[in-house]
Amino acid sequence: MPAGQDLKSIRNRRNITVREVEQASRRIAGVKGDKRFCISNGWLAQLENGASEPSICKLFSLSIIYRADFLDLVRLYNVDVDDKEKYEPLANPALTQLVSQNGNGHSPSKGAPPQNQLATNLEPMNARQLAGVEDCAPHIIYGYLGLADFTMSPLIRPGALLKIDTSQNKLNSIPWRNEYERPIYFVELRGGYACGWCELQGNQLLIVPHPSSPARVRQFTYPREAEIVGRVVGYSMECVEGDR
């Protein structure tokens, strides 16, 4: 049902006439000292017929007059604030991100990175679907390596989906014999996320890139500027770029 008809249905259920809406909105606009909160009966008719869309001020007035939740009215126009986390990675596609496990949002197939994401990040996906497994331990979360993040390339290519064990959130002197055994960590920074080998020198955390990577060593004050989210214990990525 179009949003305008939904609003009309709400008004009718409340037994409120368009004239009463106008009168009530004038009182609200008077108190606010802002005529943008005023709703004429002619404009309301256009709104309910789908000929216009409400401004945030007029929608606020309607939510009061109809005794409705403002966010519920906003959702009628395909704007859901609960989707904020879902679209943040799309708005900042170059960042490395975490993948939240709230079960909301689109879940790509295993090995397929979320579209248009250049940044390493955690994003709203269903981790169980992402992993392609039936059971997800509570200490396992998932991350996305941004398309602009070459820290661990070519070992882990940008766009990879990362499996992170949050129970391993301390830097330990784990013996390793080669780069494949060296622990890789997912790190939360004050302005985003990073993924790489890590070294702790005093209170300085070094994020060390792969030797073949064009990235440089980054240094942060630990834990004020950087915190270990967990150890990367698995990843899924394309073995070739593009359609090759």
Summarize the structure.
With 244 residues, this protein is an alpha+beta fold. 26% of the residues lie in helices and 24% in strands.
Say what oligomer this is: single chain
**Portion in beta strands:** 15-25%
Largest sheet: 9 strands, mixed
Query: Low-confidence runs (pLDDT<50, min 5 residues)?
Result: 102-116, 124-135
> Termini distance?
45 Å
Helix percent reads: 25-40%
Structural class: alpha+beta
Describe this structure as you would to a colleague.
The chain is of the alpha+beta class and 244 residues long. 26% of the residues lie in helices and 24% in strands. The chain folds into two domains: 73 residues, 434 Repressor (Amino-terminal Domain), CATH 1.10.260; 150 residues, Umud Fragment, subunit A (Ribbon), CATH 2.10.109. Strands 2-1-3-4-9-5-6-7-8 form a nine-stranded mixed β-sheet. Helix 2 crosses helix 3. The protein is elongated and about 80 Å long.
